[in-house]
Amino acid sequence: MPDTLRHLLRTPQGLIGGGIILMALLAAIGGPAIAPFDPEAFHVRARFSGPGATYWLGTDQFGRDILSRILAGARSTLFLAVAATALGTVAGAVLGTLSAFIGGWVDEALMRIVDAVMAIPNLLFTLLIVTVLGASGVNALIALGIAFTPGMARITRSVALAVRQQDFVNAAVARGETGSFIVLREMLPNVVGPIIVEATIRVAFAVMGLATLSFLGLGAQPPSSEWGLMVAEARPYLFRNAWMMLFPGLAIALVAVAFNLFGDGLRDALNPRA
Amino acid sequence: MLVIGERDGCRPGMEALMDRPAPLSRRNLLAGTAAGGLALVGLHGAHAQTARRGGTLRISVEQAPSKLNPLQHRVGPEYLLGEMLYSGLTRLGPDMAAQPDLATSWSSNPELTEWTFRLRPQVAFHDGSALTAQDVVATFQAILDPATGSPGRSNIGPVDSVTAVDPLTVLFRLKGAYADLPVALAYTNARIIPAAVLKGGMARLDREALGTGPFRLVSYEPSRLTVLERNPDYYHPERPYLDRVEVQVFPDATARTAALLAGDSDLMLSAAPTDFARMEGAPGVKGLRTPSGQFLNVIMGCNQKPFDDVRVRRALALTIDREAMVELAAEGLGTVGADTPVNAAYRFNTALPPREANIAEAKKLLAEAGYPRGLELTLVASDRPNTRAQLGVALREMAKPAGFNINLQTMAHATFLDQVWLKGPFYIGLYNMQPTTDGIFSLLYASSAPWNESKWNNASFDKLVEDARRTADDARRRELYARAQKIMYDEVPTLIPVFFDLLAGIRTRVQGFNLHPRGAVYRIEEVWLGGA
Question: What's the pLDDT score for residue B36?
Fold first, then answer.
């Protein structure tokens, strides 16, 4: 792994992406501690201020400090995005490997179901799930996780099919190992590389997907400082104080780009031939 | 402070246009411009300009007028259509007094229990049939029939029976003395419909409009565009001045303002406080503002825990810094409320002492009510207009130090109306000003109110409101209403921290439009389009 890391940091994508993600993680962990103000405190006398000495990124319609809110929002935004991706990845990876291992009509049936689900546009599918579950941050996470599962299952299966032909799998079958042992201990560790790369890139989509849901009022609820919600709340005030919309939007874009770059770097590092 | 000051919704130009039908012939127009032009401009400015015929007025509204049947209207855009397509017996003046519409005059017996209305002769419905007293009788019977589901049922006064004395005279017999009847009959739902149509079943009114109003229906696509054209047979010889009216639906406030600024609409009937400043500075557009009795209230289900305890409700009321709330929720374009639904915009109002925020007292009350460690609550706010969520977030923050832990839940407006409105225990409502003090009390707060959402059901309050409506003497009525207001102030069935000024936006070429404090009176037939 240290070898992979060195490879990763040698690529410019990996370095930049990793750097931004590290900063975002720091904000997510220590955000409330380093924030200059309480993210929910009103400053009635300083509403709609632009960037300045006191409020570095300005204030919103209640006079809440935007910088503090973005820092506080990093936690919910990043945590939800990573958790949604993890959910989709684990479910998809297990499903894909299982499908590849069992093969036959089970494989066929699973993959046709995956095809059918993937035929529905991702956002529409997420909206459908959230509408059924009800609007909240956790439900948005679940919805996004479910929406990611079919894609991950497909990718995992294609890699796992190749692994399935390897001698060590045949050897395990010959040893009379159980199906779950072969799937979880023999095959899964060998397909994990491509999955991690895919998952990293998916985090970027998750950040944007969650922001979209919150923007539509189906994700985090006010007064949360989830970034998508911040953009949504700033919209009516676009002409009063555009900074309210710009900074959280920028934060979303930055993190999404960072995860994309990091994923690219990781792919190169894990696959030196490319 | 509850004093709003003089109602400035009525501007001099309005009376000028109302009382003296403007000369419209080309010769008059030329003469006026050539000979009297200078003098007129000097004396009256723009208001004395001659109303011009023709043109299309594009009005933008914030939600779809989903019902066409005027008896069932319940939101602003529907009231707008109702007023343009139909007429009532009376209409509401800018001073909240009754003015003639289909009725030209009215009188009552000394006990105020029997009212006689004389109808305007030779008025035709859109299908050509003539208006008679029978139509009026049939309409009011339909309104009073619970099966119709008309909000007007409890707003048109204590009407017992309506009978036709002769083809042009209608007699209203009341259950008790009611001085407000001519005002009450101007209610938004009391639009006269042909008796023949009502006899054939009301379903027809969901697709067609058959009124006596100044405009006729051309097309009706509720969620997008409704088109109306001038009714050449309208009873007023000159009006309406416009050939055509288009009602455009723009659910998004920013898009609505953008359309007005870009000249894609001429009149924006409701402007968000956030957009008001922006309109003031734009060329060709101006903002209109009038103090009103419109309010946002926080409904607390008084029939269930924890709000069945008056101390909890009073504690929450005491957490609010009302001056700050006007700033936060209304962008300063409003006035402070004292948890009763009437304010200085009404004819009968007694100013109550403003409720100051007192966190220590609120904490004490909450502890006495059995919640020494605070309360966890979920407050529902629909997403339209966004002032609801604004008020919710501000309330959450203000109530926090007193131990109220409020989770705010926003939802789409349609979902809110379907699932929460009139049902939920804790949500944010929005109501327009009603024509009379009695009207707002019996719409929302009396035990028998059709929209009794707080389920407060206070017998002594009911009694006072009931007594006041049977009282002819103004001073005595004022006193009864003052006592009713005081009970509300002490019992806090709902929180009413802020009254909102009504805001609208208009292109400067649109003439003759005045923003009415009631918020459901538009008088589009008096509007005309100036040059440029």
Answer: 36
Instruction: Look at chain A and report how many structural domains it folds into.
Output: 1
- The answer to whether B316 and B426 have CB atoms below 8 angstroms apart is no
Residue B428, SS3 per DSSP: strand
How many angstroms separate the CA atoms of B126 and B448, rounded? 36
Could you please report the per-residue DSSP string of chain A? -HHHHHHHHHSHHHHHHHHHHHHHHHHHHHHHHH-SS-TT---GGGTT--S-SSSTT-B-TT--BHHHHHHHHHHHHHHHHHHHHHHHHHHHHHHHHHHHHH-HHHHHHHHHHHHHHHHS-HHHHHHHHHHHH-SSHHHHHHHHHHHHHHHHHHHHHHHHHHHHTSHHHHHHHHHT--HHHIIIIIIHHHHHHHHHHHHHHHHHHHHHHHHHHHHTTSSS-TT---HHHHHHHHGGGTTT-THHHHHHHHHHHHHHHHHHHHHHHHHHHH-TT-
Span of A90-99, A102-111, B117-126, B466-475 with lowest mean pLDDT: B466-475
Full residue range of the structural domain in which residue A110 is found = 2-46+53-270
Q: What is the pLDDT of residue A272?
A: 54
At A273 the pLDDT is 52
Average pLDDT for A58-63: 91
Spatial separation of the C-alpha atoms in residues A56 and B213, rounded to whole Å: 57
Query: Cβ atoms within 10 A of the Cβ of B373, count?
Result: 8
Residue B308: CB atoms within 10 Å: 14
Q: Does residue B255 carry a pLDDT above 80? A: yes
B159 touches B140 (CB < 8 A): yes
Residue B406 near residue B378, CB atoms below 8 Å: yes
Please report, rounded to a whole number, the percentage of residues in chain A having pLDDT higher than 90: 36
Nearest to B287 by CA among B303, B262, B270, B305: B270
Token pair, residue B117, equals 């209305």
Tell if the CB–CB gap between B393 and A235 is shorter than 8 Å: no
Question: What would the DSSP string read from start to end of B460-472?
Answer: HHHHHHHHHHT--
Cα distance from A133 to chain B (closest Cα, Å)?
13
Contact yes or no for A135 and B409 at CB 8 A: yes
Q: Please give the full DSSP string across B221-263, using - where no structure is assigned.
A: ETTTEEEEEE-TT-SSSS----SEEEEEE---HHHHHHHHHHT
Domains belonging to chain B, first-starting first, are 65-212 (3.90.76.10), 293-501 (3.10.105.10)
Which residues does chain A have within 8 Å of residue B407's beta carbon, measured at their own beta carbons?
221
Tell me the pairing of strands B114-119 and B169-174.
Answer: antiparallel
- How many Cβ contacts (< 8 angstroms) between chains A and B? 54
**Residue with tokens 């501007």, as numbered in its chain:** B11
CATH label of the domain that carries residue A131: 1.10.3720.10
The per-residue pLDDT for range B289-338, each reduced to its tens digit, is 998 999 999 999 999 989 999 999 999 999 999 999 999 998 889 999 99
Q: A238 contacts in B (CB within 8 Å)? A: 254
B64-84 mean pLDDT = 94
CB contact under 8 A, B277 and A240: yes
Question: CA–CA separation, A255 vs A22, rounded Å?
Answer: 10
